[in-house]
Amino acid sequence: MSYEDNVFYQPDLEVEPEENVIVDFDVVTTANNMERVFREIPAESSVGTWQRVWSMSDDILQKLSAKTIHSQLITDTHAKIKVAYPIELFEPNNIPQMMSLFAGNVFGMNSLQYLRVNDFEVPTDFANSFPGPAFGIQGIYDTLGIEKGPILGTIVKPKLGAPPEVHAKVTMDSWSGGLQWVKDDEPQTNQDFCPFEDRISRVLEYADQIKSEQGRQVIYACNITGTIETMVKRAEYVKDHGGKCLMIDVVTVGFSGVQYIREQNFGLPIHAHRAMHGAITRHHQHGIHMKVLAKAYRMIGVDAIHTGTIYGKMGYGKIDEDKKEVFSSNQALTDKLGNLKPVMPIASGGVGVTNIGKIIQALAPNVIITAGGGVHGHPNGSQDGAKSLVQAKEAGLQGIVDEEPLYQWSIDNNKEELQIALKKLLNKD
Ligand code: CAP
Ligand code: MG
């Protein structure tokens, strides 16, 4: 590859943020390749290829070439770089094209060992060319009539297999125990053992019952994941039956599928589950950081998205690394991004009474915290499991988050359901 044109690598070049998309990369390559990839990455992801072509004019090269404008060697084989992409390279309101440009071919170049897209900044007008969240954080509180966070919820378990009547009972018991938000699990769509319409109608009847008997608005995030045509039909069914929230597995459905549903304007918040993100986001030196996906889905217009718990079963299992990962993703959901509304982070995965206090301390107030096993694994079932989680939240809001003080608090304050949960989890006799 002969990227002799120094146009692609101009360290310390000053660019106008409102006229460029700036992308942060981590690059790993062989030492003698480092300067070469500082040219190849911008070239391959903008107007270049492996040799100069007759149809490339100096005008195109100067106006439309991406440029590495900053490089920092971490080691002789690992660098961090910033690449400026002229905004003319991008089509407004088109995430697939944006990701194909700076997160596409570059990943496959044989001069690289690893490449990770860590973040990107876009001009205001470009951000505003996207629909963005219809509800966002404030909309979730206002429109759904639920009190300010942290919002406690659960995932119906088992993940798959229970018939509609059991699925609905798990939901009803969780709401009756004081939870506000119940979601389908990510692979639960329309299997023979739990047909979509049967499941949705039963659960929404219970939601109506709670509303009329207790005056409480509770939320059921209905998983509509499927083909675009199927998702439209399912979203219409949810809306026609008084549903208040749609759930989509946004990574497996894809950017366009999510945006298509967003742009139908069903008037229902979109709960974005991120199943399969780990295949893209997990490796520290290769792939795409979760905050890049979080920002892209915010532009597309989800209202809440899973970003991790720090203390649960997902992530790196290293508090400092998980804190950095979750905080930076949540920052991407709430930092100024054109006029787009901020998106609610969802903390889920291995959540229970022994870690929800720490999660609240780290992520509240604006967060939805969902616990599946942490609720339905309670010795007395879902309703008491829900009560125990609500009680642990109460303790967490008072700063009581460690196991033994929490157990003592449950005894001193007659929090029976929490005490029973902790007895099991802490192997108390
Ligand atoms: C949690 C969960 C969630 C993932 C999501 C599950 O169940 O329902 O989908 O944890 O992870 O299927 O594992 P538990 P993330 O509460 O029983 O662990 O939010 O990191 O995408
Ligand atoms: Mg799940």
Strand order of the largest sheet: 5-6-7-8-9-11-12-13
Strand content: 15-25%
Q: Using the 3D structure, state the CATH architecture of the largest domain.
A: Alpha-Beta Barrel
Low-confidence stretches: none
List the keywords.
2 domains, Alpha-Beta Plaits, alpha/beta, eight-stranded parallel β-barrel, 429 residues, five-stranded mixed sheet, binds 2-carboxyarabinitol-1,5-diphosphate, globular, binds magnesium ion, TIM Barrel
Written account of the structure:
The chain has 18 helices and 13 strands. It has 429 residues and is an alpha/beta fold. The chain has two domains: 122 residues, RuBisCO large subunit, N-terminal domain (Alpha-Beta Plaits, 2-Layer Sandwich), CATH 3.30.70.150; 290 residues, Alpha-Beta Barrel (TIM Barrel). Helix 13 links the parallel strand 11 and strand 12. Helix 6 packs parallel to helix 16, helix 12 packs parallel to helix 13 and helix 16 crosses helix 18. The chain is globular and about 75 Å long. Bound molecules: 2-carboxyarabinitol-1,5-diphosphate and magnesium ion.
Would you spell out the secondary-structure blueprint of this structure?
Layout: E1 20-28, H1 34-44, H2 58-64, E2 67-75, E3 78-86, H3 95-102, E4 114-121, H4 124-127, H5 136-144, E5 151-155, H6 164-176, E6 181-183, H7 196-214, E7 219-223, H8 228-240, E8 245-249, H9 250-253, H10 255-262, E9 270-273, H11 278-281, E10 287-288, H12 290-300, E11 304-306, H13 319-334, E12 344-348, H14 356-363, E13 368-370, H15 373-376, H16 382-397, H17 403-412, H18 416-425
Parallel strand pairs: 4-10, 5-6, 5-13, 6-7, 7-8, 8-9, 9-11, 11-12, 12-13
Antiparallel strand pairs: 1-3, 1-4, 2-3
